[in-house]
Amino acid sequence: MSNRIQQAILLPIVLLGAIGTLAACSNEVPQQQQPLSLLDFATTQTCPPPPDKPVWIDGGTFIMGSSAVYAEEGPERETTVDGFWMDPHEVTNRQFAEFVAATAYVTIAEKPVEPDVFGVPVEQIPTYMLEPGSAVFHPPAQPSRNYADWWDYVPGAYWKKPYGPGGPDARPDQPVVHLGWEDMAAYAEWRGGRIPTEAEWEFAASAGAAKSADQPEPELANSWQGVFPVTNEERDGFKGIAPVGCFRPNAFGLYDMVGNVWEVTADLFRPGHDPDDRDNPRGPGENLAYDPMNPATPSRVMKGGSYLCAPNYCQRYRPESRQGRDPGMGASNVGFRLAYDRPPAERAF
Ligand SMILES: [Ca+2]
Ligand SMILES: [Ca+2]
Q1: Domain-wise residue ranges, the chain
Q2: Is the peptide bond prior to 115 cis by the omega test (within 30 degrees of 0)?
Q3: DSSP 127
Q4: Tens-place pLDDT, residues 20-79
Q5: Which fold would CATH assign to domain 33-105+172-341?
Q6: Which ligand is nearest to the CA of 317?
């Protein structure tokens, strides 16, 4: 299987932006890929570290989904999940570094891109987009609703250099980003865990709280206060990624489920839930999976929104939120956390 099966962010950037404006004149990396304002999003702030020990989530029955905001999050239906353990915080760079040190694992973003994933003649692909790299958010100078204006493919961006080679190193206490599905799955196997199902994740994120379509208060989650993508009021203290554990945990003791970075789950994506799949649902099979943003290959469901979610764009700062995630590449606002079927004491760490 190709390392770069689908590139849901890359393809629009190439087809809507880069090919139209760059390929005809240059194969060089455009200067705007490393704007100084990007570094405003990197913080050196620290917070008291939350515990690493997985939390037992007693299973139960809840109303999964939402019909209040986006159609693909419904219908609401009563859903039951069995108990499981879950990481109290997003997987951090410190934790991922332990995995890489032990295994010499090389992530997708560190490997060259195979030209055939673009589906266009190779001469139409800017050379830099075939280099190892990943999708990095940068704030555009002007208001926009076109995501090609704030996503760049940045050669040399990967988990240890989340802003690209010219930016600061990844900080140990921040969530790891720029991973593809196979990178996350490899980490999970090494840790003795697994990627949670969407139902498990949503049950754990909800923690018995009433549903709300409102943006969380600034002390509760790292989202975007102000008008995205140009005005970041930073009332929660962070323009970009925050260290894990800076915000109040939910009733189950889980930090940053909503906000900070999106979290990839094991389910394949299709718009809307199957109303009849209510007992430990695991999402559609490959034949029924469909992501309008990434139609050629099944996407994974990601949950909870990120520091880029604002009321005027991406009201995804909720447990019910869901979007398809290209399995073949990472981005600077997408991470994950693990679930476990065995108690922590039975594992080696
Ligand atoms: Ca924020
Ligand atoms: Ca999160």
Answers
A1: 33-105+172-341
A2: no
A3: G
A4: 333 333 334 444 344 437 888 999 999 999 999 999 999 999 999 999 999 999 999 999
A5: paralog of FGE (formylglycine-generating enzyme) (3.90.1580)
A6: 2
Q: What is the per-residue pLDDT for 320?
A: 98
At 118 the pLDDT is 85
How many angstroms is it from 125 CA to the middle of ligand 2? Answer: 33
Which amino acid would we find at residue 142?
Answer: Q
Q: Which ligand is nearest to the CA of 307?
A: 1
Q: How far is the CA of 258 from the centre of ligand 2 (A)?
A: 5
By DSSP bridging, strand 334-335 and strand 262-268 are parallel
Ligand nearest to the CA of 215: 1
For 282, counting Cβ atoms within 10 Å of its Cβ (0-12 exposed, 13-18 middle, 19+ buried), the class is middle
Distance 338 CA to ligand 2 centre (A): 12
Please report which helix (H) or strand (E) contains residue 199, including its range: helix 198-206
Taking the whole predicted model, whether its pTM rises above 0.85 is answered as yes
CA of 225 to the centre of ligand 1 (A): 7
The SS3 call for residue 54 is coil
